[in-house]
Amino acid sequence: MGKLNDFGYVDNAFANIRKVVDEQADNIQKAASLMADAIANDRLISVYGGGGHTTLPMGEMFFRAGGLANINPLMETALSVFNQSLKYLELERTVNFGASIIKYYDIKQDDVVIIFHNIGINPATIDAAMQIKKQGGKIIAVASSYWQNEMPKDHFIRHPSGKNLFDFADVCIDDYNPVGDAIVNIPGLDTPIAPVSNIVDFTIAHLLEIETVRQCVERGIVPPVWNSANAPGGDEKNAAYLTKYKPRIKML
After folding, report:
1. Is the whole model's pTM more than 0.90, yes or no?
2. How, if at all, do strands 193-195 and 138-143 pair?
3. Is 87 exposed, middle or buried (0-12, 13-18, 19+ CB in 10 A)?
4. What's the rounded Cα separation, in Å, for the pair 131 and 61?
5. pLDDT tens digits, 33-63
6. Does residue 1 register a pLDDT over 80?
7. Which domains are assigned to the chain?
8. Which terminus of the chain faces fewer neighbouring Cβ atoms within 10 Å, N or C?
């Protein structure tokens, strides 16, 4: 068989990741400092996805081998890809829906919440961010400056306030997702294919955890980290974390 022609997908995806590593290092370190503070103070680190495929990084961080055990997903399946697609698309554009999710999960003063939404302008994202700030939480926002800056101010998917996710964040991490997301153009086809947002956002999620663990160890704090439940002894090693976090994390 011949060499696979990916039309630059892998190179461009890795270039996007490298741009994040090179240009967002300070912001990732600042965000990880907030996360390490949460661990030091025995607090949960909450994660929210603003709709559709941006809910997937929340799942990538939750109950994951080698991941932090105090991750608290603010999961609403109505916004996720596990709902009917046209239904979640409508709900992520519905004003006040995001706020109701934050109220349900009872975010408190100084709680850390990571919000993933590469577009960063829709009502389910902006209302969630506004409600987190009302309740005194701290926001780490992972989104694209391109979408927030380049989308028309009167575009119908925007929150009525016209605000961007970065307007509410204590720390902003730019994932540099291009408007339209898909990055491959096949000759003879007008529609771009092969989205890149989740590959980059999954990488950011893991970079945040790596840097948080590093900072914890540097401070002399033992970070709570899951072992693989499928590896020998995994369940036994995880038992203490399950006892500790199951009463506090709704999705456990």
Report:
1. yes
2. unpaired
3. exposed
4. 22
5. 999 999 999 999 999 999 999 999 999 999 9
6. no
7. 24-245 (3.40.50.10490)
8. N
DSSP assignment of 91-148 equals HTTSTTHHHHHHHHHT--TT-EEEEE-SS--SHHHHHHHHHHHHTT-EEEEEE-HHHH
C-alpha to C-alpha distances, 223 to 70, 218, 234, nearest whole angstrom: 9, 11, 17
Q: Which pLDDT does position 245 carry in this prediction?
A: 98
C-alpha to C-alpha distance for 50 and 54, rounded to whole angstroms: 6
- Interhelix angle 123-134/97-105, rounded to 10 degrees, is 40
Specify the 3-state DSSP secondary structure of 215.
helix
Helix, strand, coil percentages for the chain (3-state, nearest 5): 45, 15, 40
In single-letter form, the type of residue at position 137 comes to G
Where does the pLDDT of residue 2 fall: very low under 50, low under 70, confident under 90, or very high at 90 and above? Answer: confident
- Backbone torsions φ then ψ of 188, nearest 5 degrees: 95, -5
Distances 236 to 125, 156, 210, 225, 227 between C-alpha atoms, Å: 38, 51, 23, 13, 9
Q: What's at 199, amino acid-wise?
A: I
Question: What are the C-alpha distances in Å from 29 to residues 8, 21, 181, 189?
Answer: 30, 11, 26, 41
Residues in the chain: 252
